[in-house]
Design goal:
By secondary structure, this protein is an alpha+beta fold. It is 23% helix and 22% strand. The strands form three sheets. The chain has a four-stranded mixed beta sheet, with helices on both faces. The protein has a three-stranded antiparallel beta sheet with strand order 1-5-8, with no helix packed on it. The protein has a three-stranded antiparallel beta sheet with strand order 2-7-6, with no helix packed on it. Mean pLDDT is 87; it is low at 1-26.
């Protein structure tokens, strides 16, 4: 099931940080708890971004036998009305992982953002995803299922970039197995990193001012 990330995507750069400062690139920051909370509040206050003309949305699951998706209340957000969650193609790499794998991602939506991403994270890709080293074998061996839906049955979800919800039961148009997640990232030119701990990289994503998402991060090592 797709659910709200622990921290949803940020869209505006904090003005008191210089995103392409070489000091930040060469000395990735470790934020104080207060500064981290401040940046997360700023991220959550920004409006979610959704691409125009999305025709198909997706749901990723380790269960390939689902015929009908019924609205439900997520345990991590019990005040949310019952819904079914899906995601667009552009943000799907967030879910090319085993369900319980903590992972983080940062990406660029424009040439200006790409300059920041390249400078701060030393990459030529337009998206980076990262997970902990001890998840490598499970990511390599995992199989997940991609369910496709007509996007007209969903509405943009205001809480996260590229995510959609439906208050009604929905039926997938198709389902396919994805049994090589490493190759899936490579084919999409997503830079996939594995690191002992995610904390320092998370902080660097927060200060970058770029769009980001943290998923299942409550289970990550800090």
């Amino acid at each position: 099931m797709l659910k709200r990330a622990a921290v949803r995507s940020s869209r505006s750069a904090p003005r008191h940080f210089v995103a392409n400062d070489h000091f930040l690139r060469d000395n990735p920051p470790v934020l104080t708890d207060d500064k981290r909370r401040e940046l997360i509040r700023e991220a959550n206050a920004a409006p979610a971004a959704h691409a125009a003309g999305v025709a198909t949305v997706y749901h990723y699951s380790e269960d390939g036998s689902i015929k009908r998706f019924a609205p439900h209340v997520p345990p991590t957000n019990p005040s949310h009305p019952p819904a079914v969650w899906a995601i667009d193609a552009g943000h799907s790499p967030l879910y090319w992982f085993p369900r319980h794998c903590p992972r983080i991602s940062v990406w660029a939506n424009s040439a200006a953002q790409q300059t920041v991403l390249t400078d701060m994270f030393n990459t030529e890709s337009s998206r980076i995803c990262a997970a902990e080293c001890h998840w490598l074998e499970r990511v390599r061996d995992a199989s997940i299922y991609r369910y496709s839906f007509d996007a007209s049955a969903f509405a943009p979800w205001s809480d996260a970039d590229g995510q959609y919800i439906s208050g009604d039961a929905v039926y997938p148009e198709s389902v396919e197995v994805l049994d090589d997640l490493l190759s899936l990232h490579a084919a999409a030119e997503v830079e996939l990193r594995f690191t002992a701990r995610l904390g320092r990289l998370m902080d660097q994503m927060l200060v970058s001012g770029l769009p980001f998402s943290f998923v299942r991060i409550r289970d990550a090592r800090r």
